[in-house]
Design goal:
This protein is an alpha/beta fold. It has a domain at 2-175 and 210-235: NAD(P)-binding Rossmann-like Domain (Rossmann fold). The protein has 14 helices and 15 strands. Strands 3-2-1-4-5-6-9-14-13 form a nine-stranded mixed β-sheet, with helices on both faces. It has a two-stranded parallel sheet with strand order 7-11. Strand 1, helix 2 and strand 2 (38-43) form a beta-alpha-beta unit. The longest helix has 21 residues, at 100-120. It starts with a helix and ends with a helix.
């Protein structure tokens, strides 16, 4: 895929909303190898922009302070841009549960602002980043991200017959990205450093496992293959949280272990990446699912009076319970490939030597 990505990216200008996060740092690292003309980091945290500017020290990077909630600021930032990766979002379950209207403002209204700015400025493609929590949502982040997808699909449909609009709007959807900021693995590592037991919500709870590099590859795949209104999903393995905790304790030779605290508000026992309703129209590839939008367009007569026959009883959703589940040894093998885990192991080994 690298050759097609190089052709797509070389000499182009790319905007990343929420670009100072884990995804932004990783995708910038990859994008720079494809020789774009400019990468614009759009976010509202000046300290993270300062750190990122020093980290990359590249003349190709430009940093803009702004907020996707502010339509004028994202409109100005997207002028002359070829592609947008829309990563700006509120992502934490408790944050969105406590402040749901903030999730609405960022995840829904902010996405609409990005899409409208892209269309107005004739951006070639926009890829919006989704989550498994948007599928059969039970919490505020899932609901707001589900609406983000619906906004993208509706916007794509509304311009499908307009010859003046060439912008492709599509999305990706993925599960837990390993070692991103605020996720469970760095949290566990921080507790190990504090010599505390690891709290596990439910031993049998399952979650998808996706290395950050694979999440970046999925977004680049969507940029290359993207069609209007489509959502792209990478097939991923999963494991139980008990398996994950055992793997972390084994990697760091941590003897204090872990304990079960129970499912918290807003959490599901298993996550879903593709619903059974979506699967009957989904295109399955070797490593990916391509989910086309519903075919009704904006014709209300079709919506109310025409449908598609499907035997949904014979279709099972693609969930963290039904996908390939890793055992402890397989999970350890996956985690040991993460650069952050490698770095933490080096630090831990140095500390052990100093204390002996």
């Amino acid at each position: 895929m690298d050759a097609s990505i190089t052709r797509k990216i070389k000499g182009k200008k790319i905007l990343i909303t929420g670009g100072t996060g884990s995804f932004g740092n990783s995708v910038v690292d990859r994008l720079l190898t494809f020789n774009p003309s400019r990468i614009i980091i759009f976010s509202r945290d000046e300290k993270k922009q300062f750190d990122m500017r020093n980290k990359f020290d590249s003349p190709k990077l430009r940093f803009i302070i702004g907020d996707v909630r502010d339509r004028e600021s994202i409109k100005r930032a997207s002028r002359g841009v070829d592609y947008i990766f829309h990563a700006a979002a509120l992502k934490q379950v408790p944050t969105c549960e406590f402040f749901p209207m903030e999730a609405v403002k960022t995840n829904i209204n902010g996405t609409y602002n990005v899409l409208e700015a892209a269309i107005e400025n004739k951006v070639s493609s926009v890829v919006v980043l989704g989550t498994d929590k948007a599928v059969y949502p039970i919490n505020a982040i899932g609901l707001s991200k589900a609406m983000m997808e619906k906004v993208m699909i509706a916007e794509s449909k509304s311009y499908v017959a307009d010859p003046k609009v060439k912008t492709i709007l599509c999305g990706v959807r993925y599960g837990n990205v390993l070692y991103t900021r605020g996720s469970v693995i760095p949290y566990f590592v921080s507790l190990i450093k504090q010599n505390k037991r690891l709290p596990v919500t439910d031993f049998n709870m399952t979650r998808f496992l996706l290395p950050l590099d694979d999440a970046v590859s999925l977004v680049l795949y969507a940029l290359t293959k993207g069609k209007g209104g489509y959502i792209y999903v990478k097939k991923s393995p999963s494991c139980t949280l008990e398996t994950l905790a055992k793997a972390i304790c084994s990697i760091f030779d941590y003897k204090k272990g872990f304990y079960e605290v129970g499912i918290r508000a807003g959490e599901k026992k298993h996550e879903t990446l593709v619903t059974e309703e979506e699967l009957f129209r989904t295109i399955e590839k070797k490593d990916y699912y391509q989910i086309p939008p519903e075919s009704q367009g904006l014709d209300y007569n079709k919506y109310f009076y025409r449908g598609t026959k499907a035997d949904l009883d014979k279709i099972n959703p693609y969930t963290s319970f039904s996908t390939t589940q890793l055992n402890v040894e397989q999970t350890i093998k996956m985690l040991l490939k993460l650069p952050e885990i490698k770095e933490e192991l080096k630090i831990r080994q140095k500390e052990i030597k100093l204390n002996t």
